[in-house]
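Reading a protein record of the kind used here takes little practice once its layout is understood. The fold follows as a row of integers, each naming the local backbone shape at the matching residue. With these conventions in mind, the following record can be read line by line:

_____
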Amino acid sequence: MGAVVMYGSVSVDGFIADENDEPGPLFDWLSNGSVPLDESGVVNVSQTSYDYTRPYWDQIGATIVGRHVFDMTDGWDGKPPSGIDHMVVVSHRPAPEGWDPEAPFHFVDGITPAVAKARALAGDRIVEVAAGDVGGQVLAAGLIDEVRMDVVPVVMGAGKRYFGPVDAQHLLENPEAVIQGDRVLHLRYRVRR
């Protein structure tokens, strides 16, 4: 099975969005370069960020997000972002009324069944877990193998925390990657078992 990886862009003080769910400059690094990271024509990064991020994106078999993110993005109109094959949405509610049953989105009640469903869908590829409340819950449950963060040089002061409401200490190993891009620092840590 592939690794379960918690991932997201984050401010230097640990936030993935402000108190109004706005990311501010956290995704600026995804549009400040000249190298296309995907087919959209919108996401252009530095060569260094491309060399680090593209191989990771290519390994993702399924991504887990919370219902809040799903609702904020209008479910990406039924098309997972960045070429991801499957999205698993942690939700106590079913798919929205009128939702296309053929869209590669799976609504699962609870983080443990969500990780199991994502692993089944991903096979030997990576299961990505979005940072924030759901990611923090998956970390607290001991189901995260690796933490990847794109640290952006901004102090937000308050907002939505990268690790959500985690209230216990979790040790990470020494960084396996520390890559400086343009207005971003890419970090990768294994979770200590």
